Amino acid sequence: MSELLPTILGVCLVDFHHKRGPEVEYWYGLPDSCNTNELWPNLPFQALPDGSHSFEETFTYFTLLYNERRKCSPENQGGASNLPDDELSDYTTLFAISCSRQIDSDKLTHKSLDVTRSTVQKAVVVIARKPIFGQIKDKLSIVTNAFFLQHDFGDKSIIISLCENLKSIYNQVEPISSVDNGLYVGLCLRKILYDFKKDVLLIIKALLLERRVIFYGSDVELLCNLQFGLLSLIPNLISNLQDSGSPLLYNDLSQLKAADSFKSSDRQSVLRFLGLPLQIFEKGGMFSPYTPLQQVNDIKSEMTKFFIVGTSNSLLSEQRDELCDIFINVDEKSVDLIDKSLAPILQLTSHDKKWIESIVSLVTDTWNENDEETPKNSQYEGSEDFIRWQFEDYFTGLLSSVKIYDYIVKCKENAIIPQSIPEEWVDSKPIHLFNINWLQQWETTQNFKIFNTITDDRLFDLFPPKHPYNGVDTLKVLQQKLAATFQNLKRNNSIATEKDSVILLKATESLDDSNTTHSETSLATTPSIVSTSSSKERLQPNVWTSWKDYFNKKKIKGSANETENVQSLSTEELDTKESSPENPAKKVFENALLGLGFHLPNHRQEVTEIAEVKDNESTPDTAERDKESVVLVESASNDDKVDESIEQESDAEPTPDNNVGESVKQDNNTKSSNDDKVDEFIEQERDTEPTPDNNVGESIKQDSDTKSTNDEKVDESIEQESDTEPTHNDNVDESIKQDSDTKSINDEKVNKPIEQESATQFTEVISEQSTSIVKPTQELSLDDSEDL
């Protein structure tokens, strides 16, 4: 009905009386049936706001309730929150703009008796059915200034001329949409973004949640302009505020129908199909851009559930904690969330922040101090229209994302229906880019229910569900980089594992070939020394790790402490692995033992002691080391044979076995009572010759130690074993003597001296063996370092 009525309702003059306060002095242009004496009792306080006397000229925007049928306003004591139920459909919201000025009373040519103060303050008010503030603001300012320049307030002809002129311009029977662009005039969005920056988007989202919001500021014009400017960012809302003046006015949802078509050439038709505008002032909501202290009862009423109001009165500001959920200080350009539960709900996502910051950056870069509404060089980017279109794109993407989110949830049980939706939309979950917490809260509001009722469920088929920010998400890029890094590490690890397996297999095969070659000679001349451990102990499934550590560790000749640390490390690691599960490599070593002619029943035998030969001419020289800790003592008839045997072992890449060290320790526990001498002998061995295979050296030391005449128990044990096992290994004894001579061991413990030349030759052979052993181990270490 309001679309068929004239836009301009009337004009009035408001005066500030020194005794009665603000009051309406003069009316013009109202319908004849209006009772001006009872019309809008709060209008004078809205037209002359608190603090207006501090400005030479100031403008105020405010709303008024008007009964179109009875041509009146609500009753004096009723207010906006107490309207008769049977007249709700007759009420609508009007919009008024006032321009107030003041003049020295001494300058007046005709001074009335009521003028008792040094200054006179008055305001000219224009009342309209649409918020056309920007269009009439300049004209109102000129007329008001001219009225004051007359120095005679008795002559009101200029006010009459203003009213007639405005009616002739705006009182054309036209649809609201035809003047929609005109409603944005004067609402400086650039100034709003320049002052509040990214908080602009936060405030917009807060308004959609239907909360109690108070705007406070001393500059009333800036205060009111901010509120209308923010509302204008919601597409098509500023031209649909007819129910915003009272919490009792609302749309009947039963009469609303969903739009099933639109005309692409008609912008209003497209906006209606999208469900815009979002009606944020429905039942229980009120909008009052300037609220004087006399109207505080309306915002405290039980009928008022949420509101957007502006004030310059400090008393309302002091009551912010009990009156509102969100307090916006225009002077300080700050937003204070009184209700702390709104903090996570109104938190902007990274996409929201980057989107609004990109717009703010354009405004800041093109800021023009001389003209706040126009960017430098009059470019489009950063202009008023540019900002408005950006927010329209934001709302379009938001509404479409909400629709697809609800549609997927609704059809979750039906697996066929979601298949018609592009997979990228389903996987991207665009609604999360707008803050899912905010969405869940918004879905409880009335404006969302209206939107959901009047829009199609598959709105996303025509309007893509996406966030307007198309830049690179740094967090997503970081996640992708981390995922790629872990994938590469996993791939390299698998490749390195395959390399280790191949090297281990080659080493095992080489060992098998070497053992097969030696077995014929060794079995004929060397006793088979296999000892079984106690049933509580188990074989070590994997000793490669400790030996890698041993060979990778930097060795300093003559450093006994470092050598002891390496050997203790190997022993400790073997001890901790006593109960570890069997390693697949165990099978390989068992096969190697079988190739040597040793049979382990049930593959669970262990090495506990070493059978030693008490023959003066035969002593073990080297131990053939395998995974099952079996020690095979090799010998040769002369020094040349010893050299040849050692070289063959070096070519076959012998695999060190830490279990030899364990067996030696067990032999010490069972066969030796003189532990102090054994320990001293082992330390001397380490100090003089840091060979790669410490456990082999330790075995040789133990063999030579057992020849001591002071150890009767050892001799007895050796004699028992010598009765049952052949001892024909002369050259082994000589190699032991060479080793003992190199280490400066007591000659009395050695059965026969060894020549210096043989000792030197044996040392060279051992050095060659160390080199052959260290080299492949270092290669494995490099591969492992690359994997890490």
UniProtKB/TrEMBL annotation:
InterPro entries: ABL9/DENND6_dom, DENN_C, DENND11/AVL9_GEFs, Tripartite_DENN. Residues 560-571, 656-672, 757-780 have a biased composition (Polar residues). GO terms for cellular component: cytoplasm. One of its GO terms (biological process) is post-Golgi vesicle-mediated transport. Residues 9-465 form the UDENN domain. It comes from the Eukaryota. Pfam families: Avl9. Residues 513-534, 559-584, 610-788 are annotated as: Disordered. Residues 574-584, 610-629, 673-689, 700-716, 725-755 have a biased composition (Basic and acidic residues). Residues 645-654 have a biased composition (Acidic residues). Belongs to the AVL9 family. This is UDENN domain-containing protein. It comes from Naumovozyma castellii (Yeast). The gene is NCAS0C03370.
